[in-house]
Amino acid sequence: TFSMLWCWFACLLFLNSFKDKLKDFLEKKEKGELLIQKAGNLLQNILKKVTLSVSHDGYLHYGDIVCLLNPSTETVLSANMAESKMHEEKKLVGPCDVSAGKTIDPCIRNAFMILGPKDEGEVLRFNEPFVLSTLPGVGGENLAALPQYTFRTPFGRECEVVSKTEVDSHKAEKPCNHWVFVTREVKDAAREHEVQREEEFKDLVSREQAAETEEAPLKEENERGVNAEERGDED
């Protein structure tokens, strides 16, 4: 009898606990607070389509929304949130790792805004510092290269790149958030073009000289044949 009462009491406790958990589950589901719902909502948010800026003059400008494409691998720079944060947040929250992703369609995850010391719309000039930031309202973190965190690659140790705004004690952005587009200078390009033209001319002259050298014996033989015929006619 005691064992039956104990089993009945245990079943009652289990049913009450199950009812409480079911009630809690249904309430969270109705509010969209289940972990799977949060993760799904976040994925929908960070994969939301973004319209990139149009360059009418061929230049980049402060305030432009751009993607960074690697043509050789057909990947774009993308922000990656930690999996643990994806169950808690509704938008991109730094610090985030970055990677080169195969999803090349512009979206919240792979679109960045160019920020810097100039006003929005000003042309980004050569050798000017700038900041790559995730879009305002969905994170607003700047892209940073962290020299204190490195990892080994086939090319040596390299810095980690994360989506995080690093500031000093005065709330000013640190240099690790500043990036510069590196291009060839005009004078270097002009000199390289000049050297290339000189090499092409030298190569052309060498080919012509080689052709003349190959044709010389045949030409000489033909001339000897013509001279022999002329002497025969004279006889």
Question: What would you say about this model in short?
Answer:
This protein has 235 residues and is α+β, with helices and mostly antiparallel strands. The protein contains four helices and eight strands. Keywords: Cell projection, Cilium, Flagellum, Signal.
User: What is the approximate shape?
Assistant: elongated
- Main sheet attributes: strand count, strand direction, barrel closure: 5 strands, antiparallel
Unreliably modeled segments? none
| Helix/strand order, N-terminal first | HHEEEHEEEEEH
Roughly how many Å apart are the termini?
A: 149 Å
* Strand arrangement in the largest pleated sheet: 2-3-4-8-7
Helix content: 40-55%
Number of strands: 8
Number of helices: 4
SSE class:
alpha+beta
Instruction: Tell me the strand percentage band.
Output: 15-25%
Report the average pLDDT across residues.
75
How many whole angstroms does the radius of gyration measure?
A: 35 Å
